[in-house]
Design goal:
Elements: H1 15-25, H2 37-47, E1 52-56, E2 59-62, H3 63-79, E3 87-92, H4 96-107, E4 111-116, H5 122-132, E5 136-139, H6 144-150, E6 156-159, E7 182-186, E8 191-194, H7 195-202, E9 216-219, H8 226-236, E10 241-244, H9 249-253, E11 258-261, H10 263-267, E12 279-282
Parallel strand pairs: 1-10, 3-4, 3-5, 5-6, 9-10, 11-12
Antiparallel strand pairs: 1-2, 7-8
Helix pairs in contact: 3-4
Pfam families: AMP-binding
Domain AMP-dependent synthetase/ligase: 43-289
InterPro entries: AMP-dep_synth/lig_dom, ANL_N_sf
């Protein structure tokens, strides 16, 4: 290949793009203010407990409510024998319970394995359950039968619901978690991501995308897609409000100001229809200049 056409050759870029790459790739070194995802989330809870954490299909949950529900579930899991460092399969679809499950697993010192229950095939479920050797599986009630059909013999399956673990302590488990411990493992993209990677990406610019209290972030992607973690965790560690879409994309996009998506999703919608959207981040596919 001609050296001049190599992908890592900066001269292939326009002067403006070269400047952007240089500006984003240099400057004063900054450290993330928190070293774990749930630690960053809890810091928001302590300062802004009444702020809305998420909205979905007419339901709402504040940061304090999400924290308490996740604490109860985490304590339930720990009390049932879940050990720090284990992987927990999370078979869900877009819902507030999905967020509770994610945070509870992290608070228990574990790593979640997100599975979109509405998309995953029987073969995929069986493979992931076997490969992770998951001791615990959390699922929405509508996936209970499928999960129990393919789970390992010794796996414990728990239904997710706002009342799950309701009789357990609402206090934080306080389990020691290292920045090098895992946040999630995704089988769709084959990634195994640590806390330090996510806190650096989500609590610092440019990946933070200016998200803060008052920011309204769209949640449009599948939980089993790596970019979905950018939407969900990015919003929750920065105090923004997450708007989880239903089948009506427009209803969500008219309410938000921040959108993270693939170029193909962006191409389906007109900027004129959603004037409130101020920040758009695209990734996951080649992005046309138009």
């Amino acid at each position: 290949m001609d050296q001049r056409s190599r992908f890592d050759n900066m001269t292939n870029l326009s002067e403006d793009d070269q400047k952007l790459v240089f500006d984003f790739g240099s400057g004063v070194q900054a450290s993330a203010p928190h070293h774990t995802i749930h630690g960053a989330f809890e810091s928001i809870v302590d300062v802004h407990p009444g702020v809305l954490a998420a909205v979905h299909d007419g339901q709402k949950i504040t940061y304090k409510q999400l924290d308490i529900s996740a604490n109860r579930l985490a304590n339930y899991l720990v009390g049932s024998g879940l050990l720090p460092g284990q992987r927990v399969c999370l078979v869900v679809q877009r819902s507030l319970d999905m967020l509770v499950g994610m945070m509870a697993i992290l608070k228990a010192g574990c790593q979640y394995v997100p599975i979109d229950g509405g998309v995953a095939s029987d073969q995929s479920l069986r493979h992931i359950f076997e490969d992770t050797d998951a001791r615990f599986i959390l699922c929405l009630p509508r996936f209970w039968d499928r999960v129990n059909k393919f789970k390992g013999q010794d796996a414990i399956v728990l239904e997710l619901g706002m009342e799950t673990g309701a009789f357990f302590s609402p206090t934080r488990p306080g389990i020691k978690v290292s920045p090098e411990d895992g946040v999630y493992a995704m089988y769709t993209s084959g990634v195994d991501v640590k806390h330090t990677t996510m806190t650096n990406a989500l609590l610092l610019e440019p990946g933070k995308l200016g998200m803060t209290v008052g920011t309204k972030v769209a949640q449009v992607l599948s939980i089993s897609f790596a970019m979905g973690a950018w939407e969900m965790l990015g919003s929750l560690v920065n105090g923004a409000t997450l708007y989880l879409r239903t089948s009506d994309w427009s209803a969500t996009l008219t309410q938000v100001d921040t959108l993270i998506c693939t170029p193909s999703i962006l191409a389906k919608h007109s900027q004129r229809d959603f004037p409130n959207i101020k920040t758009v981040a695209v990734a996951g596919e080649a992005c046309p200049q138009s």
